[in-house]
């Protein structure tokens, strides 16, 4: 999406949609009051009749308004004047989904409102992001798409002095939105399109586009690295595994490196511990962790953040065949820990075990991993909240603060040592599953064995990464969650 900052009078701007806000406590903003006068009180009457009530996310679209060059006026309810970033984002995402439903209506002019508690800079960044994300749907394979990407956004601001600041805000919003769309696209594509080789090829292409160094390890290299845990998961598939390493250097040569690891199970059938059809239906989403790391790395590079960041994508397919790894198998992970397999559907932790140990040995100062790891985390926190687990309170606090700033919901989970007892095995160092209770925590305690003494946070995104159905403010399918949080975390890392 292209964008520009304009100071043309609102009534003269040519666009398919002229978007501005209405609040419950102030339905007639100064902009609307002016229009109301020109229109002989039409808008006041809409307020009286309660057609315009300013409720968060409520839209009122008025076509062919006399005196307006724009084709439609879209009034977006934001609740109250002091709406916070979260409420404003929800409202703008709802508006973006409405604006992108017509092939013939892909240019938007957004009039900032200086009367809100939220700064016009924030309004601009959030709106640019919302218009970028809201214009992309999950109907990638429909011959007649139901959603059309928005082509152009004009931000209408009267104070010319602010143009540079608003320009930067819109740029950040679009970069973040496009990064989320990259993540969403990869997750939304079925497993036959996106498997370890094609995912790695796509990562190489992104790296070339945005200027990241990239290295792809194949079967032979993974064997040399003795990644026995990840390789066992890959064995049942005809698709060979890949480990993609991305490197961005925006900080000092000898500065600390942030490591981001992603679970990239391009399809999770459950292996011999086969899932039910219902449980398997959405398992093309099981590489969302890796796709999130790729999206975040691309944004970090495009925004030229002054930090050093490495991304590690562990890509495998968990399938059933005569070569599948079996229950009772004992695997030797890269760091020498032996693992007894009690459930081949607990494969994500087996992949991450080797990826985390590789990253820890690669010299990163701090580690994060993202994974659609457990159904148990969804039971604990619901569909929309990310679970955060870690071995270091300060680093976990940094993560929670980044999520709060980015406006994404995250909740810290406990890491009491007694959860590790569930992982004791009679034949090897550990086994790969515990009991049903506290399943997301035992999974995190398993991962903890592979990070050494590097401060680490594990994010279980099994709930928020992928949604079964649409909501007014977001499309069903992949969400692109945590891209913004990771970029914020990197921004604070410098
Ligand atoms: N990929 C799944 C977790 C998942 C569930 C992601 C729902 C997204 C939505 C993971 O590999 C898995 O199968 N976990 C098992 C672990 C169990 C066998 C200990 C689970 O959660 O049931
Ligand atoms: Mn699984
Ligand atoms: Zn999985």
Explain what the structure shows.
- The chain has two domains: 2-157, Leucine Aminopeptidase, subunit E, domain 1; 182-493, Zn peptidases (Aminopeptidase).
- The strands form four sheets. Strands 7-8-10-9-13-17-14-15 form an eight-stranded mixed β-sheet, sandwiched between helices. It has a six-stranded mixed β-sheet with strand order 1-6-5-2-4-3, with helices on one face.
- The protein is an alpha/beta fold and 494 residues long.
- The two termini are 29 Å apart.
- 35% of the residues lie in helices and 20% in strands.
- The protein contains 15 helices and 19 strands.
- It has helices at 30-38, 42-48, 85-99, 120-134, 163-188, 196-210, 219-224, 228-234, 277-280, 288-302, 348-361, 375-381, 393-406, 439-448, 483-493; strands at 2-6, 17-22, 59-63, 72-77, 107-111, 152-156, 213-217, 242-249, 257-268, 308-318, 330-332, 338-340, 366-371, 386-390, 410-412, 430-431, 456-460, 466-467, 477-478.
- The structure holds ligand BES, manganese (II) ion and zinc ion.
- Residues 268, 286, 343, 345-348, 372-376, 433, 439, 462 line the site of ligand BES.
What general form does the structure show?
A: elongated
Query: How much is the radius of gyration in Å?
Result: 24 Å
Give the end-to-end Cα distance, rounded to a whole number of Å. 29 Å
Helical amount: 25-40%
The CATH class of the largest domain is Alpha Beta
Percent in strands:
15-25%
Q: Give average pLDDT, whole number.
A: 96
- The named CATH superfamily of the largest domain: Zn peptidases
Number of helices: 15
* Extended strand count: 19
How does the major sheet shape up? 8 strands, mixed
Bound molecules: ligand BES, manganese (II) ion, zinc ion
Please tell me the total number of domains: 2
CATH topology of the largest domain: Aminopeptidase
Biggest sheet, spatial arrangement of strands: 7-8-10-9-13-17-14-15
């Amino acid at each position: 999406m292209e964008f520009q900052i304009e100071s043309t009078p609102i009534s003269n701007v040519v666009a398919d949609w002229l978007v501005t806000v209405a609040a419950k406590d102030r339905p007639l903003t100064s902009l609307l009051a002016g229009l109301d006068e020109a229109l002989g009180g039409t808008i006041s009457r809409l307020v009286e009749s309660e057609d315009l009530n300013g409720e968060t996310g409520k839209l009122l679209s008025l076509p062919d308004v006399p005196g307006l060059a724009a084709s439609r006026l879209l009034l977006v309810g934001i609740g109250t004047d002091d709406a916070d970033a979260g409420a404003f984002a929800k409202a703008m995402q709802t508006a973006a989904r409405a604006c992108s439903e017509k092939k013939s209506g892909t240019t938007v002019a957004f009039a900032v409102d200086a009367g809100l508690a939220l700064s016009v800079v924030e309004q601009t960044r959030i709106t640019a992001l919302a218009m970028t994300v809201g214009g992309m749907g999950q109907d990638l394979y429909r011959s007649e798409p139901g959603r059309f990407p928005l082509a152009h956004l004009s931000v209408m601001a009267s104070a010319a002095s602010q143009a540079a600041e608003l320009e930067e805000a819109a740029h950040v919003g679009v970069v973040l939105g496009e990064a989320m769309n990259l993540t969403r696209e990869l997750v939304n594509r079925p497993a036959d399109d996106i498997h370890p080789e094609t995912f790695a090829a796509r990562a190489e292409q992104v790296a070339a586009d945005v200027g990241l160094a990239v290295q792809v390890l194949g079967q032979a290299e993974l064997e040399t690295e003795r990644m026995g845990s990840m390789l066992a998961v890959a064995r049942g598939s005809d698709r060979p595994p890949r480990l993609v390493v991305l490197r961005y250097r925006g900080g000092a040569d000898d500065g600390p490196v942030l490591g981001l690891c992603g679970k990239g199970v391009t399809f999770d059938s459950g292996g011999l511990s086969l899932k039910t059809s219902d449980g398997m239906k959405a398992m093309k989403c099981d590489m969302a962790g890796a796709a999130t790391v790729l999206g975040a790395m691309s944004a970090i590079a495009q925004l030229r953040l002054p930090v050093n960041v490495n991304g590690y994508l562990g890509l495998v397919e968990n399938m059933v065949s005569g070569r599948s790894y079996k229950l009772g198998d004992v695997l030797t992970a890269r760091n020498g820990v032996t693992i007894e397999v009690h459930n081949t559907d607990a494969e994500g932790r087996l992949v991450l075990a080797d990826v985390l140990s590789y990253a820890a040995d690669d010299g990163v100062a701090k580690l994060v991993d993202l994974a659609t790891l457990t159904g148990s985390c969804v039971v604990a926190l619901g569909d929309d909240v990310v679970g955060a687990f870690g071995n270091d309170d300060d680093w976990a606090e940094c993560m929670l603060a980044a999520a709060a700033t980015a406006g994404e919901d995250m909740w810290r989970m406990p890491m009491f040592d007694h959860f590790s007892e569930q992982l004791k095995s009679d034949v090897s160092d550990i086994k790969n599953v515990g009991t049903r209770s506290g399943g997301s925590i035992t999974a995190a305690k398993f991962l903890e064995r592979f990070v050494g003494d590097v401060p680490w946070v594990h994010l279980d995104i099994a709930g928020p990464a992928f949604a079964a159905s649409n909501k007014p403010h977001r499309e069903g399918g992949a969400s692109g969650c945590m891209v913004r949080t990771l970029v914020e975390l990197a921004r604070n890392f410098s």
